[in-house]
Write a structure and sequence with these properties.
This protein has about 280 residues and is mainly α. It has 11 helices and no strands. Helix 3 packs antiparallel against helix 4, helix 9 runs antiparallel to helix 11 and helix 10 runs antiparallel to helix 11.
Length: about 280
Amino acid sequence: MSALPIDIRVPRFQLFSPRIKRLGNSTLLALSGIFIAVFLWWLGTSPFLSENTILAGFAPDACFRALLQLLQSGEIFTHAAVSLQRVLLSLLFALLVGIPLGLIVGLSRRLEKATSPLFQFIRMISPISWMPLAVMVFGIGDAPVYFLLTIAAVWPIMLNVSAGVHAVDPCWLTLAKSLCASRWETVTRIIVPAIVAHALTGIRLAIGIVWIVLVPAEMLGVSAGLGYFILDTRDRLAYPELMAVILVIGLIGYLLDLSARLFIRHFVHHRRNALN
């Protein structure tokens, strides 16, 4: 008598239950952290602890009401769109400068030794320090903002690309040399594909730096943007709106960084699957 086949398949929900459980725990921890932060925020602006009436304008309830009004009017979307446009264009300019420069420096040891002290010196200068010079050279408007954001984003991109060139497996370079590959073929077929992950990491770091520099850079006389809107709310003494804009800036910055992290993770996962 032949044995009856035994169905050992595990229900689908049981396969994914550990992952769902971990996701649920992470979500609960994140929500608890946010709840504690809002509670401390409310406590710090509560009239029970301070008699300063100005702090009432920064209270969570007043801030969330102002945020709802800004969302309903659509005004905050206009300023956010202008700021995001400046960030994306500045990143594009930084990529056009940082990637070729990183490749050139990474491919030449002599050039790297000659330029490394200079680049490190300039990199350590705060982009905000260039404000007066940017205004004198480019005038008032969008041009100095793009200059400040670009100079802030160039360095992490360039340094990560250069580090990626140094991290290329020497065996691949030896193989290319044994196959009589030209310098251009070695760069385009081996080095460039190998440094994509490093370049993406540099872009993620650049996004964080640019988003931080954006607000003070948009205080240079522009007529729109989140930085301009903060100055406008301050001049109007609209403190709830000011706090609401600060929350929007933090939220957009978090979403930009999250998008970059997810894209890098997806790229690395896809590349590993392709190699396997």
